[in-house]
Amino acid sequence: MTCQLTHRYNPDFSSLPDDQSKFNGRHKCAGCAYDEGRRLGSEKSPMLSLDYSQLPDSQAGTVRHKSVQAAFAKGYYDGVLTSY
Ligand SMILES: [Zn+2]
Hints:
binds zinc ion; mainly alpha; 33% helix; 0% strand
């Protein structure tokens, strides 16, 4: 599965750290990781988990080779902020 969403080209993701590790979600879509984190954050979910293996792949745009962990954490933070 390959991500086709426009968040692949969101310039906000260009500030995420690069991560080329094949064991840490490399080639997974950081935009989808961000969206999932944001969803959990807006719910102030007490349980955080993200199965990186379930994320769509992405080789495109600004999310290419970006850290899905950092994207998920930023999404969670932004989601929590929107709840106040
Ligand atoms: Zn995506």
